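Problem: given the chain below (181 residues), write out its structure.
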Amino acid sequence: MEQTIESPNKDKDILEFFILPLVGIGYEKLGITFTRAFVNRTGTQVFLQFETEELHQYSDKFFSSIAAKGMYYQIYEVDDVWLPDMQLLLAGKYSGISKKAKEQIILISGLVYMRKLTANRLLTAVPLLALTKDNELREYWEGRVGGEYVSWGRFKGSSIIPENSELYDIPTEGIYIDKII
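Solution.
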């Protein structure tokens, strides 16, 4: 069955697609003052950044809130069960996370997964295809810009992506809260 690939919104990142669901939060549930998410270096806490003070707690994993540099942050604790998966996500090893973590991400992320378009066509969001190193995603990246994998930068200048390669880029240093506050 052929899949149509839905590219991610450029404003979303790995934290919103993969990590927020591990603390029970779907990106689409966050209010309009939400600006972005961060994580601490150990992967044990997730920080939600808001333009104004947010009183609503989005998950039972809520730990605390702070104000810093004109922004407001809610801090959520990551359950111990997810810590090995968090380490893999922070290392960009998306296909290596547990089956349970993949199911949690698919369930809570709000991203389209295997939505039937026609009898022979399904729609799945690009980040979710990366969790399984889906062949459709590999072919999609290999076919980009004259056969060069340039969208995420891992294989710029190559038209073939090695079989053992992850299909979504490694998170940048910008995901860590210590770079902000």
